[in-house]
Amino acid sequence: MPELPEVETVRRTLAPQVEGQVVVSVWVSGKPLRQRVVTRGQVGGPLVGQVIQRVDRRGKYLMLVTGRGGVLLHLGMSGRLAVVDTGGPRQPHTHLCIRLAGGREVRLVDPRRFGSVEPFLGATPPAAWTSLGPDPTQPAFTVAALATALARTRAAVRVALLDQRVVAGLGNIYVAEALFAARQDPASRSCDVRPAEVAALHRAIRRVVAQGIAHRGTTLKDYVDARGERGDHQRHLCVYGRSGEPCPRCAALIEARVLHGRTSYACPHCQGGGGRAAGRSGGAG
Ligand SMILES: [Zn+2]
Q1: What predicted TM-score, i.e. pTM, was given to this entire model?
Q2: 40 catalytic per annotation
Q3: Residues at Cβ < 5 Å from ligand 1 ion
Q4: How many C-beta atoms lie closer than 10 Å to residue 237's C-beta?
Q5: pLDDT score of 56 more than 50
């Protein structure tokens, strides 16, 4: 699924194509996205007749901002945004089209429909946006904020970092890479992570996210940006998806472990942990 670096790359490639453009009309498929149906009227409310002032991002959410409100977009597992000439044939699984005065339109294509489209009127974005934790690219993501959030939970640190209220934008790939960079055992209990380890983790999260953005995201299967280009960061991953391969740091073999139903990749030697594990559930994979 697209994580922060992929969504930021989409934002960077979408913004120059839509900012300053007037929205002429919108179209929706009427099919539910994440079990929720939005109508053409709801999406059109903040958009039609308005200039798209900017494209913002927080965590994995994008927001198209107009003078009347905006629309939150989430790409879910398989969503992609493309800007194409108006009137061309619609690809299967197109769920939203935003037609611009300049003769182009923004299309959201999402085969698995785990994405979301959430329009809002006025200056206050919906809770999906305001309830997000700090974004690692923003100054609000501090060592102290991370320490406070981790201290509140006994969950495994890997699970806590996937919680979008703790830190916004990380998913399986960048959590695995950040834990590796910080030499942190994914199964350590969050509230037991020591201050020096929190500081290392904070540094590692910022670094892996920045590297992911610099490489325009990770394309494992079908992720492309808003110009249809694949990312490059998959060539730079240290542990994610690399079980059985040598650790780039110590050459021990990277292990896949199932932790709370999700596969986690780590080096058993340099992320060894010291008996402070929470809910470790064994060596699958
Ligand atoms: Zn290692």
Answers
A1: 0.94
A2: no
A3: 247, 249-250, 252, 267, 269-270
A4: 22
A5: yes
